[in-house]
Amino acid sequence: MKLGFIARVMAAVFAVAGIAPAAEFEFQFGGGLSEEHPHTIAHRHFAKRVEELTGGRVKIEVFPSNQLGAERERIEALQMGTLDFTKVMTSVLANFMPEMNVFSLPYLYKGNAHFQAVIKSDICKDMVKGLEKVGIKGIAWYFAGNRCIYNSRRPVNTPGDMRGLKIRVPENPVMIDTINAMGGTGVPVNLAEIYTSIRTGVVDGAENSTLFYYEQKHSEVAKFYSYTNHMVDTNIAIMSLESWNRLPEDCQKAVEQAGRETEEFLFSKWLEIEADFNKRLEEQGIAFNQADVDAFREACRPVWQKHGSRLPAGLIDSILNIKF
What we know:
- The chain is α/β, with parallel strands linked by helices.
- It has 14 helices and 9 strands.
- The model has no long low-confidence stretch (mean pLDDT 93).
């Protein structure tokens, strides 16, 4: 309340004077998705709220569509202090902080409500603190939908239907092993190359949310979408610790508040846009089917056994036992 009051007073003073407040801190936010994607919309919401809460003292310019580099490049730029903000998949961030691999385990969450409870828990607060050891400040956890299998060859109902299918995955060992356990072959492919890789037969399909599937036009080259729901995708907006340390305490609090608000904003915005895209996909004649989730969950047990043992003791159980 106090922070917002001060910001409003400052804004009013500048308004009466007829001048725009000069920013003390100007930051760049590098994103990887299109202007219309819910994550880019969330980045802009976050930037707007930071500017409002600081009375214009902190301004953030958003650069979508990999204008400031691919995902791993942006993380490294953050660590070097040459980029201020970005948003990444936890599966990619796991290359810098292995504990993040827990979010890539198949069938970890019991639904979207469980996801929301986890990102508000002490578990995620501790992870954010741990990121500081690698020069990164966690700002907001981003919902990225339910990942499912889609391909150009056939509907997938059971693990047997996955046999012979080459499925694109991010470059993450847990996700590669997940697709292999589900019966297919996990093939790492750069995000920007997925469409062409499916069209040319380098892979038969990929796995992601219906929103991503539609937004990236993958429905043009892969007509079968199967609800395996093997992963509630967890992303995170992060900030260079060097840039964070430049901010005075009141501005740091404003950034944290804007981050919390953005988590809620994004979740609602994602569901709204995804519902619209699903209708469009149905109109296109996409073949949707509900897969046998129990069969896939059972098939993925070896992934938990292999990768769970590499995670901090008790981490998985702590997540599973969170009430929601």
